[in-house]
Specification:
The chain has 201 residues and is α+β, with helices and mostly antiparallel strands. Helices cover 26% and strands 31% of the residues. It has a single domain, classed as Alpha-Beta Complex (Ribosomal Protein L22, Chain A), CATH 3.90.470. The chain is built from four helices and ten strands.
Length: 201
């Protein structure tokens, strides 16, 4: 299973790391210390959130409803890197994250391996246009991005639908894992393919 998440930093509201109760609700003591130790704690909290969300998507079961509780997803970063391991309900995923002054993104795979070594195809993009997109426009753009990835992967006719728990999936292709994300002006899509080779955007 694969999970991806993107956070529009310019649309993330007030810096949550400054609000103790908010930080305690979403992060463990170790994660709180990591956020506060960074040069830009506001960006660090965004990338931590993205990692938790991506890991949840990668580790949750498509055939049952398992609510996302941020504090329940533990993120352990490698020293001075935005790669690491996420644990949730006895399951684990490797995570690769990135951030800049505009967005934070994270890709998680439910295997003990670097995501770059797997058969993954993913892309993060910014929605163009002058006006701020509506949630419906964000969702449509993310699905269109996923359709583009599926075409490149050799599944141009695949229909994106939703599993029992609401996660996106590719109808008729249970072996393909699909994940979408959108926030503000940013969208992301990722697919994990059968191990026919390593492909990455």
């Amino acid at each position: 299973m694969i999970g991806i998440d993107v956070v529009d930093i310019q649309d993330s509201g007030e810096p949550g790391w400054q609000h103790i109760r908010h930080l305690q609700r979403v992060a463990s003591a170790e994660e709180q210390a990591w956020v506060k130790s960074r040069l830009r704690p506001d960006l660090a909290l965004c990338v931590l959130w993205a990692a938790k969300e991506a890991a949840y998507k990668a580790l949750s079961c498509p055939d049952r409803d398992e609510p996302f509780i941020p504090s329940g997803v533990a993120v352990c970063w490698q020293p001075d890197q935005l790669t690491g391991l996420c644990r949730w309900r006895g399951r684990q995923a490797s995570v690769l994250a990135r951030m800049d002054g505009y967005h934070a993104e994270a890709l998680a795979v439910s295997e003990w391996a670097n995501p770059h070594t797997l058969g993954c195809l993913y892309e993060v993009s910014r929605i163009s246009g002058g006006s701020f997109p509506t949630p419906a426009q964000e969702s449509l753009a993310a699905r269109q991005l996923a359709a583009s990835l599926l075409q490149r992967a050799g599944h141009p006719g695949g229909v994106i639908t939703r599993a029992v728990n609401g996660k996106p999936c590719l109808s008729g292709f249970p072996e393909v894992s699909l994940s979408l994300s959108h926030h503000g002006r940013w969208i992301a899509a990722a697919i994990a393919l059968p191990r026919e080779g390593n492909r990455q955007v």
